[in-house]
Write a structure and sequence with these properties.
Length: 308
């Protein structure tokens, strides 16, 4: 796919760069955005502001919707996807909303611009039966198998991210209360079912001591050399378990996170509660999991609607 040609960028005038830095600082401080999300905002706005500068715009009050539309057209002509264009427009809109709120500008030139239509991509989700087969795949009699069972159980039982799993410390386990403390930018406490807590305890008592070395850290999940487990290792563990369980398609740590959220919503969980469990800053991110299939929706309508 084509990409915009890389050309040396001239330094931005302070009238463009300074407000952008203040916006990014505010987003990090007040919204608690993840580092990857903040980096995406920075890239999008850097591209946008250089585009404005190239068009002779040096003050944000002078921006008109035509300037933004011109950028979107150039991104499309460069072959960027609709989702990338939509993300750029979202970054630009939030930036101008911030400027308007702070009194730095008197209008939002992006307000009336519509994002390009996206082909909705739904998360891949495992059935309850596939989850059961996956969790049963690792060998329960071997230390590594005990570890792998605990990893799969924790990912599906809590919906945490793979980065949160690999960073998990033993002091964060509140298993007597059926809870795990997830630390990070959006710190939260998530429940873990008794059955999955038992799987985790079994690994901690039987498997982990075989993997730990005198200099091992307090990380819950260790590799065969006693060091902290990497994210790539977790991907490989899940792939191996998926192959053994004959899932028949590619799965990843996020597949378990998607399945966790979807199964909760299908069971009647409140969307706000699922947002909190997943650690999403914005509920619109959680709404992707409301992709119940049409046959299920028809059955719900038939069962519960007065005229069903």
């Amino acid at each position: 796919m084509a990409r915009p040609k890389s050309t040396p960028e001239r330094p931005l005038p302070a009238t463009l760069s300074d407000p952008c830095e203040r916006f990014l600082t505010a987003m990090e401080r007040d919204n608690g955005l993840a580092a990857n999300t903040l980096d995406a905002y920075r890239r999008d706005l850097n591209r946008y502001l250089h585009h404005l500068s190239a068009q002779g715009v040096e003050h944000l009050e002078a921006v008109q919707h035509q300037h933004i539309a011109h950028l979107l057209h150039s991104l499309r002509d460069a072959g960027l996807t609709a989702s990338t264009m939509a993300r750029n427009l979202t970054s630009i809109k939030r930036f101008h909303q911030y400027l308007l709120l702070k009194g730095a500008t008197t209008h939002n030139p992006a307000e009336l611009l519509d994002p390009p239509k996206l082909e909705r991509r739904l998360p891949d989700v495992l059935s309850v039966e596939e989850i059961a087969a996956l969790l049963a795949a690792p060998d329960p009699d071997e230390p590594l198998g005990q570890r792998d069972r605990a990893i799969l159980a924790v990912l599906y039982a809590t919906g945490i991210r793979v980065s949160e799993l690999t960073a998990l410390q033993q002091e964060a386990l509140l298993l007597a209360r059926g809870l795990i403390r997830i630390r990070g930018r959006r710190e939260r406490i998530v429940p873990i079912a008794a059955k999955d807590a038992r799987t985790l305890r079994h690994y901690l008592r039987q498997g982990r001591p075989h993997l730990a070395r005198p200099d091992s850290s307090d990380h819950v999940f260790l590799n065969a050399q006693g060091g902290p487990l990497s994210r790539m290792s977790v991907w490989k563990i899940i792939k191996t378990a998926g192959d053994k369980a004959r899932i028949g398609r590619e799965i990843s740590p996020h597949t378990l996170r998607h399945s966790f959220a979807t199964h909760l919503l299908e069971g009647g969980a409140n969307l706000r509660a699922v947002q909190e469990l997943l650690g999403h800053a914005d509920i619109s991110t959680t709404q992707i999991y409301t992709h119940l299939d049409l046959s299920y929706l028809k059955e719900v309508h038939k069962t519960y609607h007065p005229r069903g």
